[in-house]
Amino acid sequence: MRVMQKSRAKAGGDDAPPAIALPPPAVALYSASVDFGAVKALNQIDLRIEDGEFITILGPSGCGKSTLLRLISDLVPPSAGAMSIFGDSTEAARLARQFAFVFQSAALLPWRTAVQNVRLPLEMGKKMAKKQGRALPVSAQSPEELLEFVGLKGRENAWPHELSGGMQQRVAIARALICKPKLLLMDEPFGALDEMTRDHLNLQLLDIWKKTGVTIVFVTHSIPEAVLLAQKVVMMKSQPGAIKKIIPIDLPAKRKLEMRDTAKFNKYAAQLRKLLGAH
Ligand SMILES: Nc1ncnc2c1ncn2[C@@H]1O[C@H](COP(=O)(O)OP(=O)(O)OP(=O)(O)O)[C@@H](O)[C@H]1O
Ligand SMILES: [Mg+2]
Predict the structure, then answer these.
(1) For residues 36 and 268, what is the distance between their CA atoms, to the nearest angstrom?
(2) Whose CA is nearest to atom 1 of ligand 1?
């Protein structure tokens, strides 16, 4: 934990204010870049995401949104700059299972039932921990409880092919939550779903966020989805991939689908559309 003010002794006086210990941010990037050969996928990204925030990322195709998530999750190294995850290196955060991923495709193992798919990271983590002599991963809830949490009570023993796309994605979210991550990285998780299912899952995700306190970084191509979910929208631009603007969304904390019809919501949407250059 970092101490932001000098200690009393160091400040040298009884009148000095007491030290305040601030928790480290969930994600801190300092001028971080990623090059793939000649392609500058990310150029000097400065980004700070506080513990417990819900951030959405918007930007044209190829601007580096997925690369940003891969950088945060230690899947690609920075070519330049520095970064930390909850005050630690990305590698330490990965080994401690501080974060989990949800992709556009649920990618469930077809030979495992829903509950067996949810349990998988726990089983794999235990095997790896044993091999490396590290502490075993812990689960906040049982796989069955997590399935109930995402609204799939009664479907624990269903095979993936017996579940709809939205249900499969909910299994993927339960699977991502099994090792109690502090950070959830979501790359267009609802992009392949119909609008009604997406609406429903958006509300369910907000509920999960509220109940677990997990920090969420969510990539989407949908402007209304980005506004509805986020406390802040990070707008990116391409060639090279960089942050164009960060827009705080000042809507009531309890988000509702009907908010999309309000003038304030539409003002944010119009602002983002303009930034995207798609109006
Ligand atoms: N492994 C890789 N090797 C080489 N180039 C890569 C690699 N991964 C990504 N790129 C390049 O980096 C740039 C950013 O790609 P990225 O996948 O992060 O974009 P994106 O914003 O997620 O796009 P989309 O919205 O289409 O998913 C692109 O030019 C892409 O071709
Ligand atoms: Mg992508």
Answers:
(1) 33
(2) 36
Query: What are the structure tokens assigned to 128, written together?
Result: 């790896």
Distance from residue 63's CA to the centre of ligand 1 (Å): 7
- Cis amide bond preceding 248, omega within 30: no
- Give the DSSP H/E element, type plus range, for residue 79: none
Instruction: Measure the CA–CA gap between 188 and 63, rounded to whole angstroms.
Output: 14
| HSE (side-chain half, CA atoms, 13 Å) at 129 | 16
What does DSSP say about strands 2-3 and 21-22: parallel, antiparallel, or unpaired? Answer: antiparallel
Q: Is the CB of 58 within 6 Å of ligand 1? A: no
Q: What is the pTM of this model?
A: 0.89
Q: Write down all domains in the chain, each with its CATH number in brackets.
A: 22-98+181-249 (3.40.50.300), 108-180 (no CATH)
Count Cβ atoms within 10 A of the Cβ of residue 82 and give its class: 0-12 exposed, 13-18 middle, 19 or more buried: exposed
CB 8 within 8 A of CB 18: yes
The answer to whether residue 23 scores a pLDDT higher than 90 is: no
Contacts of 67 (CB under 8 A, 6+ apart): 34, 41, 42, 76, 241
Question: Cα(198)–Cα(204) distance, rounded to whole angstroms?
Answer: 10
Separation of CA 137 from chain center? 20
Q: What is the pLDDT of the chain when averaged over all its residues?
A: 89
| Per-residue model confidence as pLDDT tens digits over 77-125 | 999 999 999 999 999 999 888 999 998 888 999 999 999 999 998 888 7
What is the distance in A from the centroid of ligand 2 to the CA of 141? 30
